[in-house]
Design goal:
This is Unplaced genomic scaffold scaffold_195, whole genome shotgun sequence. The chain is mainly α. The chain has a domain of 30 residues. Helix content is 52%, strand content 7%. The chain has five helices and two strands, in the order αααββαα. It has a two-stranded antiparallel ribbon with strand order 1-2. Strand 1 and strand 2 form a beta hairpin.
Length: 120
């Protein structure tokens, strides 16, 4: 009887911890919400689109290009969203300040280590 009671308490605690996390993921908004997406844009269905992208990226990019005529679009990957832009957006990127677009912050967000070699 003690084992069942302990198991029930552990399952209840796990549910109480997991349910709010899943609910937050389902209903949180992103600063990318205004950009159209290829495939499913909500969690967890976006993982289906991410797997499709992994297996057929060229076709999905071509469909996005045709569908959105060169405007920005977002594509889900397994750990983040990738925003694809058209050539007409390059001028906006060139004009952006370091506060608006930061390579250092992008690397930090990606969790990539960058090593610099000393020049001789």
């Amino acid at each position: 009887m003690t084992d069942i009671s302990l198991t029930n308490h552990v399952l209840a605690a796990a549910t109480c911890i997991t349910a709010p996390i899943v609910a937050l993921e389902l209903f949180k908004s992103s600063n990318l919400d205004h950009i159209p997406s290829m495939g499913y844009s909500y969690w967890p269905a976006s993982y289906i689109s991410a797997f499709k992208y992994m297996s057929n990226a060229a076709q999905i990019l071509q469909e996005g290009y045709v569908k959105y005529k060169g405007s920005p679009l977002q594509i889900p990957t397994l750990n983040r969203w990738v925003v694809v832009i058209g050539c007409q957006n390059l001028e906006d990127i060139k004009k952006a300040t370091d506060d608006e677009l930061s390579l250092v912050e992008a690397v930090n967000d990606a969790g990539v280590l960058v090593f610099r070699s000393k020049r001789r």
